[in-house]
Amino acid sequence: MTDRDDLLKLVRDLAVVNGRVTLSSGQVADWYVDLRRLTLHHAGAPLVGRVLLDLVDDWEFDAVGGLTLGADPVAAAMLHAAAARGGRQLDAFVVRKSDKAHGLQRRVEGPDVAGRRVLAVEDTSTTGGSVLTAVDALREAGADVVGVAVIVDRGAEKAVRAAGLSYRSAFSLADLGRQG
How far apart are CA 116 and CA 47, in angstroms? Predict the structure, then answer.
């Protein structure tokens, strides 16, 4: 089995939760993909890093991150996977949901992204709202956003592409045996 196969099995086993939930988009669904159960799991996190690095291997960027909280463990997994592979230096960053009123008052935390090519990530996305909020903050901070990558796409691809961004997902709803 490949890393992607192993990751898909873990997504199905650990992250797909049946039951009525309200998504961050405000939409109501009869099932949920709780990818924090996977991205913060001892076997899941390394797979997330490797699979997403493979997914965007042909894109040039040197920092990865997105809107806190969903993107944080994804970015950290990619940072560690890149370091383990060697040959690629990859920084991670965190985009706050709102401006910080104290300290350095930075919306994007971590190494400076100004003038850098960055990848925006998210664990799962239904409308693209969270990742596009991160993209706006990154652009305001002077970053060149090369694209968006997510573990599971629940329907955000159209909105992200409409915003002029390249988009890739490791898995679709069909991979999970689900529909929107």
Answer: 26
Please tell me whether 96 is known to bind a ligand: yes
User: Over the stretch 42-80, which tens digit does the pLDDT of each residue have?
Assistant: 999 999 999 999 999 999 999 999 999 999 999 999 999
Residue 125 to residues 21, 75, 138, 151: CA-CA distances in angstroms? 15, 15, 18, 9
Known binder of ligand: residue 9? Answer: no
Distance from CA of residue 172 to its chain's centroid? 14
Token representation of residue 51: 């699979």
**Which residue, chain included where needed, has tokens 């709102």?**
98
Q: In what order do the strands lie in the sheet with 91-95?
A: 108-109, 91-95, 63-67, 117-125, 144-153, 167-171
Unique residue bearing structure tokens 């383990």 = 84
DSSP alpha helices (H): ranges in the chain? 3-10, 36-39, 44-55, 71-85, 129-140, 157-162
> Rounded to an integer, what distance in angstroms lies between the CA atom of residue 6 and that of residue 22?
28
The answer on whether 125 is annotated among ligand-binding residues is yes
Report whether 49 belongs to an annotated binding site.
no
Q: Does the annotation list 126 as a binding residue?
A: yes
133 among the known binding-site residues?
no
